Amino acid sequence: QQTRVNSQASTRVGFYNATCPRAESIIQSAVQSAVDTNPTIAPGLLRMFFHDCFVNGCDASILIEGGATEKAAGPNSLLRGFEVIDAAKTELETACPGVVSCADIVALAARDSVVLTGGRSWQVPLGRRDGLVSEGNDTANLPAFNDPMDVQIQKFADKGLNIQDLVTLVGAHTIGTSACAFISYRLYNFNNTANATDPDLNPTFIPQLQALCPNGGDPLTRVALDTGSEGSFGNSFYDNLRNGRGVIESDAKLWSDGRTQRFVQPFVGSTGQSASRFNADFARAMVKLGNTELKTGSQGEIRRVCTAIN
Ligand code: HEM
Ligand SMILES: [Ca+2]
Fold first, then answer.
1. Which amino acids are annotated catalytic?
2. Are 176 and 265 members of one domain?
């Protein structure tokens, strides 16, 4: 198994220009029609790309179905949007059989999801190949909502991503929602102490979150990660962090830990400048994330269907 962390990325923009010129528009239409029907697909697809890239690189290992694959593992249990990738792949196989990798579909669908929710577009370097391995245990690479900041920083460093990349990429939480399962302990039982709340939470935010995630309520109830703006891609997420309104613990720590706060700061504020900086930096960080442990050239394969190795 070849792994190269961000080393001379050999993806390139326009990789399918000659071999499948309609590839990007086919994927864009598939994402658009899915998001039109169900807006929660957009954050689902953005998160899918992250969870793919962090485990065996951006190689569509996340899509493989069966026994103990990544998709079946705990950290991926709430991912959504798999059917959109399959729909795009079916159309691509008709238009240009055997050409477009599932890994590139995931990468493009993530970009399209950002654009459809109001973010700025960017060009996605392509040419990833699909991986031959998908093991549930490897999902331990993924950061967890309650990982200490040291662990989060280390998990990103292991993928060639620095603290600034971490802060920028977690800005993806400007769209989408979290299950109460990842929130309630901050409201009712912080540090395993009855009735204790997380001191990172703004006291005025606690009753709001408690209303959304009642004590003992359904752990699958969903709450916006960027309060007031869950459907709209932008830098308001960082304002919420500064205001003690980070919904999951790992997000809140981006402000309370000085190592990350210094990178949150430039994204805070309603001036066009901080918004513009976030959009530009996010695009750059996504390209960097997208070159994680690439398989290119003759490595891996182009899958016939995204859910199974050929
Ligand atoms: C320290 C790193 C991170 C942690 C601990 C983390 C954790 C989480 C958790 C616990 C959720 C809620 C999942 C659910 O209930 O369905 C979530 C949602 C989400 N995450 Fe992250 N995340 C991290 C980084 C990222 C990155 C780098 C991206 C993308 C570039 C991302 C994209 C998303 C999106 C879009 C959602 C919303 C999903 C939806 O609405 O279905 N996250 N994340
Ligand atoms: Ca992967």
1. 51
2. yes
Which residue's alpha carbon is at the smallest distance from atom 35 of ligand 1? Answer: 43
- Nearest protein Cα to ligand 1, atom 17: 178
What confidence tens digit (pLDDT) does each residue in 177-213 have? 999 999 999 999 999 999 999 999 999 999 999 999 9
User: Ligand 1, residues 31, 40, 45, 47: which to mutate, most atoms within 8 A of Cβ?
Assistant: 47
Q: Which domain holds residue 89?
A: 23-143
Name residues contacting ligand 1 (CB within 6 A).
40, 43-44, 46-47, 50, 78, 80, 143-145, 152, 169-170, 172-173, 175-179, 182, 248, 250
Q: What is the pLDDT of residue 6?
A: 46
CATH number for the domain including 96? 1.10.520.10
Question: Strand 177-179 vs strand 222-224: parallel, antiparallel, or unpaired?
Answer: antiparallel
Query: What ipTM is given for this predicted complex?
Result: 0.99
Residue 297 is predicted with a pLDDT of 85
CB environment 4-32: b (16+ within 10 A), e (fewer):
bebeebebeeebbeeebeebbebbbebbb
| CATH number where 265 lies | 1.10.420.10
For residue 191, what are the contacts with CB-CB under 8 A and spacing of at least 6? none
Q: Which regions in the chain score pLDDT beneath 50?
A: 1-8
Predicted model pTM: 0.96
Question: Are both 217 and 271 inside the same structural domain?
Answer: yes
How much is the mean pLDDT over the chain? 96
Residue 176 falls inside a structural domain: yes
Domain tally for the chain? 2
Based on the fold, state whether residues 154 and 275 are members of the same structural domain.
Answer: yes
Pocket residue to mutate for ligand 1, from 48, 173, 247, most atoms within 8 A of Cβ: 173
